[in-house]
Write a structure and sequence with these properties.
3% strand; Four Helix Bundle (Hemerythrin (Met), subunit A); two-stranded antiparallel ribbon
């Protein structure tokens, strides 16, 4: 039997709470939204490109966000020394470009693991902590990283919405 992405229940975001709790709530909502857009699709469907000439796929978005979770929360915010998962210094985008031969189930699990590890890495890190961007050299805060991640997910979830609709007509939040 072919692997299919599992169903993912989503919860509403917090409407009242502290800054960290609200930021985490929105981040978790967007993480689940990406998984929701993948739910019920086979590995082959997750690899279907949005529309030529674009190579954007749901699996590519999952792979990309796994790397982005690692980049902003583990490498930058928590200061861990790690290799990238898919990103390439040569200017290519293996997260998006190398999905045809990818193991969708393994990449999906990698994404889930990165979320867990990212949350653990920054759980006790102050939102006010600053770090220097590894390639641009500018100073950023952990708070900025959270806001940026919500923005990054929101943008890519819009892409995921369109890709999912193209695959099987499913629409919605």
């Amino acid at each position: 039997m072919a692997w299919t992405a599992p169903d993912v229940p989503r919860t509403s975001t917090l409407t009242v709470g502290g800054e960290r709790e609200i930021l985490q709530s929105w981040l978790d909502f967007h993480r689940k939204t990406l998984l929701f857009k993948c739910a019920g699709l086979t590995a082959d469907q997750l690899k279907l490109a949005s529309a030529p000439p674009s190579n954007l796929t749901l699996l590519g978005l999952v792979r990309h966000m796994a790397d982005v979770e690692r980049w902003w929360f583990r490498l930058h915010s928590a200061g861990q020394e790690l290799d990238h998962l898919y990103w390439s210094r040569d200017g290519g985008e293996p997260d998006f470009e190398e999905v045809a031969g990818a193991d969708a189930e393994a990449d999906y699990q990698t994404y889930l693991n990165e979320i867990k590890l990212a949350d653990e890495a920054v759980a006790d890190v102050s939102l006010d902590r600053t770090f220097t961007h590894r390639t641009r050299g500018n100073e950023l805060s952990v708070r900025w990283a959270y806001v940026h991640m919500v923005e990054e997910y929101a943008r890519h979830n819009g892409h995921a919405d369109l890709i999912r609709e193209r695959i099987d007509g499913r629409t919605g939040d």
